[in-house]
Amino acid sequence: MISALIIVFREVIEAGLIVGIVLAATTGVPGRARAVTIGVVAGILGACLVAGFAGELANLFQGSGQEFFNATILLLAVAMLTWHNVWMASHGREMARELKAAGHQVRTGERTLAALSIVVGVAVLREGSEVVLFLYGIAAQGGTSATGMVAGGGLGLVGGAAVSALMYFGLLKVPAGKLFQVTSGLITLLAAGMAAQAVIFLQNGGLLEFFTDTVWDTSWLIRDDSITGKLLHTLIGYSQAPNGAQLLAYGATVLMILVLMRLVNAPAAGARHA
Amino acid sequence: MKRLVLAFTLIVVPIVAPAFADAPIEVHLKNHKFSPSVIKVKANKPSMIILYNDDEGADEFDSSSLKIERVVPGRAKANIRVRALAPGKYPFMGEFHAATAQGVVIAE
After folding, report:
1. Do the chains contact at A209 and B18, CB–CB below 8 Å?
2. Above 0.90 for ipTM, yes or no?
């Protein structure tokens, strides 16, 4: 029961933190509850599908199907997070322009919601498929321990959801004027961490073969498999012993997002000076 | 943005198939235990582990030091690439049954 609790708790936290950040980042955007709900539901359905076809998926691409699948959906999430941040950066400028075209604003709002809905869906799908496989294994074994395991899984779900809620309400404590700066920063690091993780999957799939040497090792400080390590991994992409390609992907993603945000924002800043 | 991702993928993803120095190492997972649970590989050379999950349920081959997380469904096998390792010990586990499913890769 304890093992079920821990595994489900850990997976739910990883997806839940992302949901919490997305909810905070979309404060005030109409229809966000629906977008997040769609993301979660689609993610759960997708997780069941992926779990059901895990064997077939793994056998693709000379046995590296799972790695390529994970890398692809992570990079998709990186693209969507980038898109959201860039949209938020140009938001102020567009608002003024679109005051003339009433109704258009809502449509752009829906576009970034769709991007974030995909991010939520991907997060739930990744973590959820492991939970589904784990719980299915328990169910298949049957016996008296199954009830305890289901209870443990349920508690893990509630606990993970509680931590995610803490994340969300904690972010809401940030003063309204600073909230979007904070969530943009969090989303940038989230995306960079996902890009670095995608690199690991590509390396494990045999697609990336350079800069594989470990650059530094902080496992003496925070281990990847500790709860702190897992939390930091999800939030900022912490890795106890990152290799060169991982760091490159991380840095390139942060740089790309910052430059794109600056580019769409530049005309507005110039207008303010004029 | 998408173009950037595409460019990133094209530039950073040259396909190089690694040559495996030795034959793949076969490992079985049965009753949530690895056998062999101690796997020796040559240091500084990539290797391949073929993991047969002989149990009914899935498990996840998980090792933070090897940087590998690989779900293996029940009654299935998985080809697991291990990068070239510096000499040392790299513990791994079956995350779904960590109480019994423990092992270590030794690079020497």
Report:
1. yes
2. no
